[in-house]
Every structure is written in structure tokens, then in C-alpha cells.
Amino acid sequence: MELLLTNLGHGFAVALTVNNILFCLLGCLIGTAIGVLPGIGPVATISLLLPITFGQPATTAIIMLAGIYYGAQYGGSTTAILLNLPGEVSSVVTTLEGYKMARNGRAGAALTIAALGSFFAGTVATVLVAASGPLLTSVALSFGPADYFSLMLLGLIISAVLAQGSVLKSVGMVVLGVALGLVGTDVQTGQQRFTFGVPELSDGVGFVSIAMGMFGIAEIILNLERPEQRSVLAAKVGSLFLTKEEFSRATPAVLRGTVVGSLLGILPGGGAALASFGSYMMERKMSRGRAEFGNGAIEGVAGPESANNAASQTSFIPLLTLGIPANAVMALMVGALIIQGIQPGPRMVEAQPDLFWGLIASMWIGNLMLLVINLPMIGMWVKLLQVPYKYLYPSILVFCAIGVYSLSNNVFDVYQTVLFGFVGYIFSKLKMEPAPLLIGFVLGPMMEEHLRRAMLLSRGDVMVFVERPISASMLAIAAAAMIAMLLPSLRKGKDKALAE
Amino acid sequence: MKINTKDLLSGIILILFAVIGYWLNQDHALGTARRMGPGYMPMLTFVILLGIGAIVTLFALFSGPNPLDKWTTGEVLAIPAAIVAFFATYIIVERLNIFQGNYYILGSAILAGCLVLAIPHGWRALGLVHAGFALFGLLLEQGGLMLALVGCILVSALADPDHRPKGVLGMIIFLCVLCWWVFIKELDIRVNVWPQFL
Amino acid sequence: MRFKAGTVRRRGVIAGLSAIAMVGAPAFAQAWPSQPIRLIVPFAPGGTTDLVARLIAQGLGERLGQPVIIENRAGAGAMVGSEFVARAAPDGHTLVMSNIASHAISPSLYPANTVRYDAVRDFTHVALVTSNPSVWVAHRGAGITDLATLRARATAAPQGLDVASSGAGSSNHLLIVQLAQLAGIDLHHVPFRGAGPAMTAVIAGQVPLMSDSLPSAAAHIRGGSVRAIAMCSAERHPSFPEVATFREQGVDLVCDSWFGLSGPAGLPAAIVAKLNAEVRAVLATADVRARYAEFGGTPGTLDAAGFTRFVAEEFARWAPVVRASGAEAG
């Protein structure tokens, strides 16, 4: 404990130099800005800004890049709440309750709780990284392919309850998402699947294209078709502050989200994505306001937002302790470090204590800055909703278009987005929820990969999924969740049918 | 029998995807459970999808009524017309053989299809918003960002009858400046700003 | 209707434009580079190719007097970005970071109808930037220390010994196939999505062995989280003199991943010569040299003609291996 405090003290001494604070602030500002812009994500931005960091010391460079990364998480939730535009996997869930809250005139409250929850979760996760990074790494290492598969399966089953309408249809959408995720190069054999000879499809369908098309563009069209709803949207802005009731409902959600996010964030790959989905489903089942889910429940924003921020902090653990990047952003961080002449690896804590502890201290400082930057901005963001919709929608459209193009500098992505705009429109007319589809799309490919690897390593023995304790318990929870979910929802479906 | 039309269509869409996917998957080797081939997971997925689609369809026969909005004759006719426009443009532009690569053929076909779709009043927003998006892609690389922005904003602005020419002009200037500042000056994304043929 | 008018006008414009480009080509050569140079990296940011490119981009830009801007265009085993450059104007302002995947393996691996360029004829190969060997590493507790113990373990395992690689069709996958053939042992390939996850699995002991490129394995070997078994180089690597080569241990398994600079076919000779000289000058600076050495890369010294021959040889070398491996992407 004492050692931890000494180390953290050392970290703060490193992070609190004027230069490092400035670059941390700069990173957070840029991150927030690109998070708000649909399409342009942290990966694109960090690779664009990498040359700027060459002239800086390694610690400063990495502090700035980290600022961009979690700044983008903050910013992403802003557009998800205000405009139903999820720029990142983790903000898909935020659209579900957040956008509904905005329509109810509680956009300010949704943004406030997102910022506060994220800050709290970030603080806890930072302490966790500092105190038990190496220990948590061994947890992550004990996850084998069979365990990952079972975890993903659990995630998919969980996500079926995410949606509003019938559970059956959402299960269908999850599976459809998995099917969409099959497009591209098969990892195990390198064979092209469902690409129709289009080279751009060999890396799969773009997540951003699907999200922009099915959420963003489809929503614009639906709003244009219902002029009466737009005026309601603009008129109701409401107080920016949380009511006492909202605050007391959100607090336990933030706590639960922090725990879920911190734990899942450590897992390389799907961790951060699973975190916000997991938290949403937990709130839906456990929170006081579960009856309100689907109509703008504050727990549905507070939990997932806390979870995804906690996860984005703890996803540094595999990078810092093993030198292994957990996602594309982390891979870029590795690149930035190597350019700086530092090989990230298991010995980084001892070899580069300044970098390690400075980064951890700056994570917390960065979170504090984000809170300070974002809270006063909420008023401004909410004002955005008062811009007449006829001016707002072309702006959203061109920002989406540029964002989608800039992903890989390819117009094919733009046309692909048009296709998903049509699909999203048809689906929304038929009350088929896009959120479970996106979750299936994200988790499906990972699930296939782990399933096949598990079977490859076990030489075709299915028992591997029940013999490993982690996997077995995941499957047990999944089975229990499925039963618990299907029984009441079938009954509810019947009630609903009668009511209608 | 109270038919839930929305669920019925949803079920049919799911079944359709499953059947087409299953059919396309015939090309891929299934492999064994030990070393699964590229076709194994798709096969599982499409079979499950087919099953769910069938159940959704079945339930839809009893859980209604939940009808779709009524369509006018124009709206009904616009759909096949748009599809024809898409393929006709695709074939014509392909034959003209003036634009190599970069999906100009696909882009022009999408644009034509969307514009035709926008003819009846009910599909105007749907058609024009997408047309604007496609036009952006079509103009971007040769025409530059500014021209693409102007095209996209002009076409998509037609989707809202409230727009007045002055307002649209103001919006175009504002967005061009904003996008230049954000994307070119600050983020420095790799794209031509001005037309290449001037 | 507006659209149709636009296409007609544009056709004229494009025709005029290409005429100007043809006439103006020699003039460009004089003033080259007259605008920022786009260096296409045909992989996502963060990978080895991206890194290698970024390490030279800055120095190259300073020497040429125009910034060299990295642009990532990933997809189809690095073929999307390479095809883009093959079709670009040969004015020296658009280059690609050519590599063992884009110009030696992928064109044989992918079905013929998706391969839209000839790796040799459609490019002007300018300079070899760096190359690095592959290395085999083992989990520390796996009891594999050299080729002999590897062979013993593989023979003892009834259904083959698991070996991880960064992906199907990668050079490391092909090495596994080659070693199994050369040593007459049963190796069981376990592909991963990238070197990072594969290395995690080896550190965790889920897979005992891995064939990896030296840059991504270097830190783990130095840090002691995995054990190096054998280097796939002709001679011992200067940065890892303690690691024996496969050749020393009796199997002739040599493989270098390489990264080069190439432009579209028909690049003017003056530009090629200047670019080659400047790349080699950048590679000679102490800073770049040190950073490449850090992860085991050897700076390239070939002239343009030598590099062109090298690419052709590499292409010819891998085509039969790809066929023999049974790896396919179509």
C-alpha cells in the first residue's frame, strides 16, 4: 500500500509538469471533439496525430494519446444521446435510453449523469490499474478460447433482451448481426466469404457504416417524415441538472456499471464492447426503474456509460503489463511507443517507471479534465437541439459522410452506408431493433474465432466447454438467463397482444 | 386469425436472408468439428436464423392486427421504378466505360435509383437524403470536398419543404467553412478540397 | 437530369486532364516533389508495416523538402492499398509500402479474379526499406528449448503439436507448413487474428509454440515471457546472438519479412534514383538505424534494380509454397 502511494506520488509528479498537463488537456479536447464527430474515431485521429507526438518525450506523447482515447469515449456518448448517432461500439447502448431521455426533454440530465458516472468509474478503474494491474493480467491470461466463446455466447443471449419489442425478433436480429459479421476474410483459412469479389469487403462490413446508416440516417428520414415530432424535440430542453430522484436512481447503476466495466475491460478483444452491453442488461433486470426501460430510464445511461469508461481504463492493463494491445487504439499506442524507442513489454513497469506511473496518474487527471470540460459544455450541446431541424439534419448528414469516408479513404464505405440507411429505415418501419443486430455483428466474428480455436485445440472435443470452470459457469449463467428471460417475456408478449 | 403484418414481414425477411445466405454458403467447405471449415459457422448461423424466422412468421399469424401504413399508388410504383433506374444506370454507365474504378458506376446507379424513388411525396425524404449521401461519394474524389458538400447539402435540403433558397445558401456557406476548419485545417484528413479539373 | 449533364462535362474534363498529365510528365520529373507525397500503407495503423513506414516518413520528408504523409488503406491481404497505387499516376507523389504480403504471398493466395495487379510488372520497385527474420518462440513451461526438443514433442503428440501464427496465409503460417515438411513432423496450425492475441496465448500456455516476426516478438524474448527456440535467418541475428538459427540445428528454414518502397509502373528513372538514394540516406542515420535494430530489422541497401529482382524472386519463391500449404483465400 505504501509502495503504491509512493509510486502514485511519483506518477503525479511526472504527470503534473506544465508540459504534460497541457498535452493531456489537448488530448482530452481533441478526443472529445472527434468523439462528437460521427465516424471519425480515436484510431483515425491517433494515427493522424502520431507525427505531432514525435517531437515530445515518450511520456508526454502517450499521455496525449491516452487523452484522445478516453476523450473520444466521452464525446461519443454526446451524439448518441442527442442525435441517436453511436460513433463507437460502446455508445450503441447509450442511444437506447439516452436518446429517449433527450426526446423527453431530459437531454441535459442524461449528459450530466454520463459525465459524472464516467468520472467516478474512471477514478475507480485508475486505482485498480495502479493497485492490481499485474494480478488482473493473470486473470485475463487464464481466459482460454473456450471461456471466451462462452462469454460471448452469454453476451449475445444477454443482448437479446436489450431491445424493446418482442424477444423473438431481437434474437432474430442478433443472429442476423452474426450473419452480417461473417462477411469478409475467414481468419482460420484466409478464404473470402460473402464478399462478391469486392476487395473492400474482405475486411468485413464496416461497423461505422452500419451504425451511421441504421441509426443516424434512418433516424433523420423518420424525423423528416414526422414534422410534428421535431418541433416537440426542439421545444423541450428542460433542466440540465439531475433531480434528486434521478440522482438516487443513478447512483447504484453507476456503482454496478463500474464493477462490470472494470472486470470486462481487462479481457483483450471484446471486453470493452461487452462491458456496456452487460451493464445495460444488468440495469434492466436489477434497477429500481426497470419498468421505465425503453422510455428513457436514467439507469440505462448511467450504468453503461460508467461501464465503458471503466473498461477503457482497465484495457490499458494488458498493454502495460504484457505489452499486448487489447484493441486497435492500444495497437497504435504500441506503435507510438516503439517510434519513441520504447518496447512495450512485460518489463515496462521496472524499465520505464516514469512512463508507467505518469500515465496512470494522467488517466485520473484526464478524467477530471474531461469532467471540467464537459459539464459546462452540456448546456451548449443541449442548445444544439434547439437549432431548427431543417438546418441540423444536413449538418449531421455531411459530418457522417466525411466521417465514413475518412475511415479508410474509400468511397465504397459511403455507398455501403446508403445501403444500411435503407435497411435501417425498413427495419424501423417493421419494428425490428437495430441495436441487437449491431451487438451480434460485433461479437459474432469473435465468437466464431474462439469457437473454432477451442475446437482446434481440443481436437474436436466439445466437452472442453463444460470441463473448464470459467466456461462452464458462463454457460450456466447463459442457460439460466435464457430461461428467466423467455418465460416472462413470452407471457408479456401475450399480454401486450391482448392489450392491443 | 389476426395477422401481425409487421411481424410477418420481419419473419419473411429473416427467412429470406437465411435461405440466400445458406445458398451462398454452398461454396464454402464445412470441414469437421475439429477443424471447422469456412462454411461451418455460416451454416449454423443460417440454420438458426431460418428457425427463428419461421417462428416469428408463425407467431405473426396470431398476434395481430398490426398493419403497415397505407401506400399510395405513386409510392407503390416508385419502388420498381427505382430498381429499374438503378440497374439501367448501372448498365448504361458501365457500357459508356468512361469511369474506371472507384465505384463511380455503383455510385451513379444508387444516385439514379434514389432520385427516382423520391418522385412520390411519401418517399421524398427517404430518396433525397440517400441521394445526397450518394452524390457526396460521387463528387468527393474528383470534385473535391467543397463541391461534394454543396451537392450533398443541396439535394438533401430538398427533402424538407420548409427550406428557402436563402437559408440553404447560408447553411452551405456555414457548413463548408465549418468542415474545412474541422476536417482540413484541424484534422487534416486526406482528401482533395477543390475540384481536380480546374 | 442535372447528373447526366455533369457526367458529360466530367468526361471531357477527365480526358483533358489525362492529356495534360501525359504531356506534363517530364516536366514533373524536374520539379519533383512538387507536392506532399502520399505513402500508402496497405495495413491498418499500428501494425509492423505502419510502424516501419512511420519511422522513415519524417526523415524522408525532410530530405525531399515535401512532407511524406502516411495513408492507411487496408484490406484483402494488403492488396487494396497496393492496387490503389498501381493505378495512381506515376509521378512519384503516390507510393506504397510494399511488403512480403502484398507483393509475394497475397497475389498467389487470393483467387485470380480478385488479384487486380501484377506484383512485378504493375509497379516500379524503388527501394528495400528493411527486412527482419521470423523467430520461433515457446511457452516457458512447455519444455521446448530447441529444434531437438520440438521434434521430440511433436513426435510424442498423438495429434500433432500446436503452433500459433498471426493468421492464415501469413508468412509465419507458411513457415509452419514448411518446417513440418522439412523436418518430417506433425505440426498443427492454430491461426490467430494478429500477432498480439497469438502471443497472449503462448504466454498463457494455451498454445506451446508460435512462429512470429522478430519485431513483435523481440520485447517478449528480451523480457523473458517466452523462450526463443530458433531464428529463421541464414546467420545468427546481431541483436539476438544467443538464439541459434534453424540452419545450425539442421533444417534449412530461412524467411525474412521485408518492407520496401514502390510506386506505380513507369516511374521516371530520375525520381527512382533520387528516391532510392534518399531512402538509403535516411536508413543510414543513427536514429533510424537504432530504432530498426531495436526490433531486429536490418536496413535495406539494395539499389532499385536489385530490389526489383528481389521482389520478382520473392514472388516466385512463395507461389509454390502457398500452393503446397493448402492455404487459400477463395
Automatic annotation (TrEMBL), chain A:
The keyword Membrane applies. It holds the Pfam family TctA. The keyword Signal does not apply. The chain crosses the membrane at residues 12-36, 48-72, 108-131, 151-183, 204-224, 259-280, 319-343, 355-379, 391-408, 470-490. PANTHER family: TRICARBOXYLIC TRANSPORT PROTEIN. This is Tripartite tricarboxylate transporter permease. Residues 21-438 form the DUF112 domain. Keywords: Membrane, Transmembrane, Transmembrane helix. InterPro entries: DUF112_TM.
UniProtKB/TrEMBL annotation, chain B:
Keywords: Membrane, Transmembrane, Transmembrane helix. The keyword Transmembrane applies. The keyword Coiled coil does not apply. The chain crosses the membrane at residues 6-24, 44-64, 76-93, 105-123, 129-155, 167-184. This is Tripartite tricarboxylate transporter TctB family protein. The lineage of its organism: Bacteria, Pseudomonadati, Pseudomonadota, Alphaproteobacteria, Acetobacterales.
UniProtKB/TrEMBL annotation, chain C:
Pfam families: TctC. This is Tripartite tricarboxylate transporter substrate binding protein. SUPFAM superfamilies: Periplasmic binding protein-like II. Belongs to the UPF0065 (bug) family.
